[in-house]
């Protein structure tokens, strides 16, 4: 009799209605609210029942078609610490909530609200650098990349553990890159400070170091406590700003926030790229291949990957070829999305011996079957605008504090002869 009572109680418990406050909200907090809250990329807020309930059927559809959460890594290659894909249990919970009528339930069952910092994903920055005056965005036409130099005023070297770039005009901002221009650099040495300018072709070459970026779906840079980006005393922040006209004029005043390491880190993180700018994609080609590779001259530790293409991007793959000749695929993105510029942080950072090649292969769909293709009848080359193409395999490596980008990329003999350093 007692056994039957236990079984009956279990049946009742399993048939209890799935509710927002008890079941769905914890899943939304963990997986969705980073973007789906006021001021962030998600077009609707999932902070409250009232703001979430109207989207219940859309949530179910997005989950079952795997449109949300956005995550494009093939699970057969590599594991990633920031994997956004929902567990089967969490997915089933949200679908069951919708199927049960998207009921609210008892507010007393709700978990404690997450304390989000308004305007920032990384939390409250220690310092914020903003473009001094708004950049005017015309209603139409092709808009060249704008650059704005902002001095940091740092009197000592600073180590940045978290950084985040944000526009004030999300609608027209295609991307932001905040570069570090170290003291003594000749990059844009005669350019104005604090006002937007368009460089000539030669001046647009970027010798600055990548600090933080913004693009649709891009995640803020978050490093471990013993790792940081180095911003030397007297450095400037160089904002690279890319806008796309949408028929109405606008203005943007982009900014970058930084959170410093609490103590001097053990490693410096450097962003590099395995890229190819010399390709030509034939008109109408549905599956055009482009390859790239870069050799690392010093030992380092690989921590993150960020593939970048434009509207014709189809798939992207990263491989490592070690000095032994062994090759390893570390990331495969079989269905690339220009709308989501995702970073992939390795679950277990990977040691790269000196002499390792980071190789990338990208495929592009320049055919009429690609609904995002601006013009399938046009031959496409590398270019800055969204209707051009890019093939860049960004990646982050951690190195000892005394190492520089030049140490990693310049052959040792050349480095000794020229006194490499930055």
Account of the protein in words:
- This protein is of the alpha+beta class and 422 residues long.
- 15% of the residues lie in helices and 32% in strands.
- It is globular and about 70 Å long.
- It starts with a helix and ends with a helix.
- The N terminus and C terminus are likely disordered.
Features:
9-stranded mixed sheet, 4-stranded antiparallel sheet, 7 helices, 21 strands, disordered N terminus, disordered C terminus
Overall mean pLDDT:
89
Oligomeric state:
single chain
**SS-derived structural category:** alpha+beta
> Any low-confidence stretches, pLDDT <50, length ≥5?
1-13, 414-422
Please tally the β strands and state the result.
Answer: 21
Rg: 24 Å
Short synopsis of the structure:
By secondary structure, the protein is an alpha+beta fold. The protein has seven helices and 21 strands.
Helix/strand layout:
Layout (H helix, E strand, L loop, with lengths): L1 H13 L5 H12 L17 H4 L3 H9 L23 H12 L27 E4 L4 E3 L8 E6 L6 E9 L6 E9 L27 E6 L6 E2 L4 E5 L4 E8 L6 E3 L2 E6 L6 E9 L4 E2 L6 E8 L4 E9 L4 E9 L5 E7 L10 E9 L4 E8 L15 E2 L10 E9 L4 H5 L2 H7 L4
Parallel strand pairs: 8-12
Antiparallel strand pairs: 1-11, 2-10, 3-9, 4-7, 4-8, 4-11, 5-6, 5-9, 12-21, 13-20, 14-19, 15-18, 15-21, 16-17, 16-19
């Amino acid at each position: 009799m007692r056994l039957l009572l236990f079984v009956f109680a279990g049946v009742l418990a399993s048939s209890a209605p799935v509710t927002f406050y008890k079941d769905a909200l914890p899943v939304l907090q963990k997986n969705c609210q980073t973007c789906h809250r006021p001021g962030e990329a998600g077009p609707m807020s999932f902070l409250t029942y009232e703001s979430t309930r109207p989207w219940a059927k859309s949530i179910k559809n997005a989950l079952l078609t795997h449109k949300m959460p956005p995550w494009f890594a093939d699970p057969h290659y590599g594991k990633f610490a920031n994997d956004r894909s929902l567990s089967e249990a969490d997915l089933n919970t949200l679908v069951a909530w919708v199927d049960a009528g998207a009921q609210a339930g008892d507010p007393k069952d709700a978990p404690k609200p997450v304390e989000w910092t308004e305007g920032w994903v990384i939390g409250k920055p220690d310092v914020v650098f903003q473009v001094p005056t708004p950049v005017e965005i015309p209603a139409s036409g092709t808009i060249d990349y704008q650059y704005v130099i902002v001095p940091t005023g740092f009197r000592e070297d600073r180590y940045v553990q978290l950084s985040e770039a944000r526009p004030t005009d999300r609608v027209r901002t295609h991307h932001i890159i905040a570069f570090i221009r170290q003291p003594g650099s000749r990059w844009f040495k005669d350019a104005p400070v604090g006002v937007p300018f368009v460089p000539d072709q030669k001046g647009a070459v970027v010798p600055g170091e990548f600090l933080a970026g913004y693009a649709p779906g891009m995640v803020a840079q978050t490093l471990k406590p013993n790792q940081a980006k180095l911003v030397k005393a007297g450095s400037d922040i160089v904002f690279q700003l890319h806008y796309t006209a949408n028929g109405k004029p606008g203005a943007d005043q982009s900014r970058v926030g930084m959170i410093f390491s609490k103590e001097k880190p053990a490693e410096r993180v450097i962003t590099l790229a395995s890229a190819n700018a010399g390709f030509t994609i034939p008109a109408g080609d549905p599956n055009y291949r482009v390859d790239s590779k870069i050799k690392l001259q010093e030992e380092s530790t690989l921590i993150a990957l960020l593939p970048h293409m434009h509207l014709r991007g189809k798939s992207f793959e990263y491989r490592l070829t070690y000095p032994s000749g062994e090759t390893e695929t570390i990331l495969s993105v079989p269905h690339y999305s220009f709308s989501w510029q995702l970073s992939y942080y390795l679950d277990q950072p990977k040691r790269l011996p000196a002499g390792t090649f980071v190789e990338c292969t990208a495929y592009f769909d320049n055919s009429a079957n690609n609904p995002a293709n601006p013009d399938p009848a046009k031959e496409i080359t590398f270019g800055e605008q969204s209707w051009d193409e890019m093939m860049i395999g960004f990646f982050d490596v951690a190195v000892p504090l005394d190492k520089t980008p030049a140490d990693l990329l310049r052959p040792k003999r050349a480095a000794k002869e020229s006194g490499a350093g930055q």
